[in-house]
Design brief:
193 residues; alpha+beta; Hypothetical upf0131 protein ytfp; five-stranded mixed barrel; 5 helices; 11 strands; GGCT-like; acyltransferase; acyltransferase activity; AIG2-like_dom; Gamma-glutamylcyclotransferase family protein
Length: 193
């Protein structure tokens, strides 16, 4: 919070588009619930990307949005949250920003349901999303046979693995796992049915 003149400016909020395990009903949503409980996040609604983007499974069934605009056949469905700076720090830890797993970058999304107040049009908003790190995104796209998903659903999520550490769910993925995943020449079951 900053003070300017006699007014108190509200804390800065960032719009975050969640397409994977942070969504309601998935493994890491407990973090979003904690952020909502502490007033560090607010659920805005169900949104969809304006551009086609690949959404794929990586090592251990972890979902990755690839920053390859116009690639793939789907506009990705997810949830939009308004998140405080404190909440954003916790999300960055979960997503492994400093470990090179993901990078938080801009994205344009629109509500899934058209706004009657705007003549039935979808009103696009600028947000941020956690994309697979650029160092392996193209290889991950090839490894997935250049096929992705429209949504990280319960069916797609089967076999997703996580670990609990210090009260925060974090991904148990190492650089070795990425290399092994990307170098596999044959189809390997990376998730259980």
């Amino acid at each position: 919070m900053t003070i300017s003149g006699n007014a108190v400016d509200p804390p800065k909020q960032t719009l975050i588009f969640s397409y994977g395990t942070l969504k309601r009903g998935f493994a890491n949503h407990t973090l979003m619930q904690d952020l909502i409980s502490s007033n560090d996040a607010v659920f805005i609604g169900n949104y969809i990307t304006d551009l086609h983007l690949p959404l794929v499974r990586g090592p251990h069934g972890v979902p990755f949005l690839l920053n390859l605009p116009g690639t793939g056949r789907h506009r990705v469905r997810g949830e939009l949250y308004s998140v405080s700076d404190a909440g954003l720090q916790r999300l960055d830890v979960l997503e492994g920003i400093t470990l090179g797993h993901y990078e938080r970058l801009p994205i344009t999304v629109s509500p899934e349901i058209r706004d009657a107040g705007s003549g039935g049009r979808r009103v696009a908003v600028r947000a941020e999303a956690y994309y697979a790190h650029r160092s392996f995104a193209e290889d991950m796209w090839r490894r997935n046979g250049q096929e992705g998903f429209e949504s990280f659903s319960q069916e797609v999520a089967k076999g997703y693995m996580k670990t609990l550490k210090k009260g925060v769910l974090i991904l148990a993925i190492s650089v070795f796992h990425f290399q092994q995943f990307l170098e596999e020449a044959t189809e390997v079951a990376l998730w259980s049915e």
